[in-house]
UniProtKB/TrEMBL annotation:
Any Gene Ontology biological process: carbohydrate catabolic process
Protein family per UniProt: Belongs to the glycosyl hydrolase 1 family.
Keywords: Glycosidase, Hydrolase
Residues the record marks as active site: E366
Keyword Secreted: no
PROSITE patterns found in the cross-reference section: GLYCOSYL_HYDROL_F1_1 (PS00572), GLYCOSYL_HYDROL_F1_2 (PS00653)
Name the UniProt record assigns to this protein: Glycoside hydrolase family 1
Keyword Hydrolase: yes
Pfam families, per database record: Glyco_hydro_1
């Protein structure tokens, strides 16, 4: 028999600052690495996006109408500290005060991502995460947020998809541009600094706000072997260590995953660890694990020659590590319009894997379907494909809950249409449509998609059918 969703389950939705706010240089905001990264040809930039900065009241009213119990958004570091550290920007502080107050007034729980890809450009110019000073800048930024908003914000997420920034920084636009001798070692030095920064954030959150809860927010997915060949199973286990557990083992247990560490040793890419770092990491503990889930990954053993990296042959980013694993297509799964494999059962697998490993409460902070939505002549948007995708994933959460997994929230991507990380704004995810094209801003008018009414009804019944 299926278990019900818990009472007070956080039926939510997600966005991130740079993808939804626009107003990229307004009211004292400083530039981030995303603002300075080259725009992918054929796609819009992040200057205006959905202009949520100027529409936030209207948007929150729509979120309330949608029935959201929680809203997961990120704070743009460069609105608070335009140069990453130093002078605080009162207008940026005021924007998030207003947004948080508006959410509270509508009984929507704010869930705040502290850092979602948009590192201050001023810090990048000084070496970004390769420079240890960025750890202190981040720690100070976090303390500032806890002091500013901690009276109203109880749920905090440290860093969005750190693992994707490390593994796919070029596609996201976060890759460091600093020239270094050993790029792989430098990459894992950046990773080490981010892990340390995260540990400091968790510690100071608990000190400053004893009743608040904080956790990491990586992108996690179950990894399948392409066949039952033992070598492929081993490749999947290696991939999981490098892509998933490296990040969560450190966040939860404060230690480097052995398999991932030996992979780094092989490549001469282990980070330098300063005295005291491991003590800080070991003494910091998350209260929950948040994770983003879109798809699973399938991998095979890689022979070890440089050309043997594998590929799914389409837009889904699956790259291998030479000699360790290579990406493979999963013939059992269908794909969305952008080539991403759709795997609801894999969602249950992933929830179970994470919970078995860490035994902490889980919240899903992203899951959704990117699609080309069509506006009908009468203005309606019949996104049945999105409803189907989300319903199937929600069914799997319920099965995982029935398995005994402790899940306390689901925040699909995205609350409202916004600009994709690297595929423009024609790739849409929202329950709320925003009237604009890739290069024509039109009137940015908001309208409700069919999925809006569906999600509203589902929330009203607490997920029961
Ligand atoms: C995640 C990011 C989000 C979001 C989402 C969808 O990796 O955290 O910021 O963009 O993916 O991806 P995309 O925009 O590439 O379709």
């Amino acid at each position: 028999k299926l278990k019900d969703f818990p009472k007070n389950f956080f039926w939510g939705a997600s966005t991130s600052a740079y993808q939804v706010e626009g107003a990229w240089d307004k009211d004292g905001k400083g530039p981030s690495v995303i603002d300075m990264a080259p725009v992918v040809p054929g796609t819009t930039d992040f200057k205006v996006t959905s202009d949520h900065y100027h529409h936030y009241k209207q948007d929150v009213a729509l979120f309330a109408e949608l029935g959201l119990k929680a809203y997961r958004f990120s704070i743009a570091w460069t609105r608070i500290f335009p140069h990453g550290t130093g002078e605080i920007n009162p207008l940026g502080v005021a924007f998030y005060n207003n947004l948080i107050n508006e959410l509270k007034a509508h009984n929507i729980e704010p869930i705040v991502t502290i850092y979602h890809f948009d590192l201050p450009y001023a810090l990048q110019q000084k070496g970004g995460w390769s420079n240890r000073d960025t750890v202190d800048a981040f720690a100070f930024y976090c303390e500032t947020l806890f002091e500013l908003y901690g009276d109203r914000v109880k749920y905090w997420l440290t860093i969005n998809e750190q693992n994707m920034m490390i593994l796919h920084g070029d596609a996201i636009g976060t890759k460091s541009t600093v020239a270094v001798e050993n790029p792989e070692k430098d990459l894992y030095q950046q990773n080490h600094h981010m892990l340390l920064a995260q540990a400091k954030a968790m510690k100071s959150c608990h000190e400053i706000l004893p009743h608040a809860k904080i956790g990491p927010a990586p992108n996690i997915s179950a990894i399948y072997p392409a066949s039952s060949k033992p070598e492929d199973v081993l490749a999947a286990s290696n991939c999981s260590a490098i892509r998933n557990w490296l990040y969560l083992d450190m966040a939860v247990y404060g230690r480097y995953n052995n398999i991932a560490w030996s992979f780094l040793e092989e490549r001469n890419a282990t980070p330098d660890i300063a005295e005291g770092d491991m003590e800080i990491m070991a003494s910091a503990k998350p209260d929950f694990i948040a994770f983003n889930y879109y798809s699973t990954m399938t991998v095979a053993a890689s022979a070890g020659d440089a050309s043997d990296r594998g590929s799914t042959g389409d837009q889904q980013i699956v790259v291998g590590e030479v000699g360790v694993f290579k990406g493979a297509s999963n013939p059992n799964l269908s794909k969305n319009a952008f080539g991403w494999e759709i795997d609801p059962v894999g969602f249950r697998n992933t929830l179970r894997d994470i919970y078995e490993r860490y035994a902490l409460p889980l919240i899903i902070t992203e899951n959704g379907l990117g699609a080309f939505d069509k506006v009908e002549e009468d203005g309606s948007i019949n996104d049945d494909y999105r409803i189907d995708f989300l319903q199937k994933h929600i069914d799997q959460i319920q099965l995982a809950i029935t398995d005994g997994v402790d899940v306390f929230g689901f925040c699909p991507w995205s609350a409202i249409d916004l600009v994709s990380t690297h595929q423009g704004c024609s790739k849409r995810y929202g329950f709320i449509h925003v009237n604009r094209d890739e290069f024509d801003l039109k009137d940015l008018k908001r309208s409700k998609k069919k999925s809006f009414f569906w999600y509203n009804a589902l929330i009203a019944k607490n997920g029961a059918k």
